[in-house]
Amino acid sequence: MNEEKKAVNVTEQTARKWLHERGVEIQDIADLVFFLQEKYHPKLKMEDCIHNVERVLSKREVQNAILTGIQLDMLAEEKKLLEPLQSIIATDEGLYGADEVLALSIVNVYGSIGFTNFGYIDKLKPGILKDLNDKSSGRCHTFLDDIVGAIAAAASSRLAHSAENAE
Ligand SMILES: [Mg+2]
Q1: pLDDT in tens, 14-35
Q2: What is the tens place of the pLDDT at every residue in 107-163?
């Protein structure tokens, strides 16, 4: 295996491992995709949601966003960032916005309809997003909640596009 391929594998494996360690499973994200798409696809199967989440997770730019966001969340939890960033991320300050901007690099991989899904799901916070936003947990998920919403939004776009192509 050449060096570049090895690096790709390490990136993907680490991104998947960190999601799991931070309490997010593929099924949790697939549930969000189902939530977003069931009204448009009456015969939607959970396995299709899972498949599309897997495809999104195989993209390098998505893995990079996961690694970057989760790293910052973890450092904030351990109080290892410098001020003022430490307090901003630890308290999930509303006007910060860089968490959403990072997530947009995921949302856009399958076109702009992902953007609508992202805004919608961020407003309603169903399923795992509600847990990630629970500030009483003592954990910091300032970046992760947006990343998970963005993966679900991108997987929904991918699913919608492939359904369109199938017709
Ligand atoms: Mg956030």
Answers
A1: 999 999 999 999 999 999 999 9
A2: 988 877 788 899 999 999 999 999 999 888 889 999 999 999 999 999 999 999 887
* Domain CATH for 112: 1.10.3760.10
Structural domain of 73: 3-166
CA of 154 to the centre of ligand 1 (A): 17
Q: How close is the Cα of 146 to the center of ligand 1, in Å?
A: 5
How far is residue 92's CA from residue 89's CA, in Å, rounded to a whole number? 5
Q: What is the dihedral of CA 14, 132, 84, 78, to 10 degrees?
A: -60
Gap from CA of 118 to ligand 1 centroid (Å)? 12
Query: What are 115's two structure tokens?
Result: 């953007």
Place of tokens 């006007």: 95
Instruction: Count how many domains the chain has.
Output: 1
51 C-alpha to center of ligand 1: Å? Answer: 25
Q: The whole model's pTM is what?
A: 0.94
**H helices within the chain, ranges in order?**
3-21, 26-37, 46-57, 60-77, 85-90, 98-107, 113-124, 128-132, 144-166
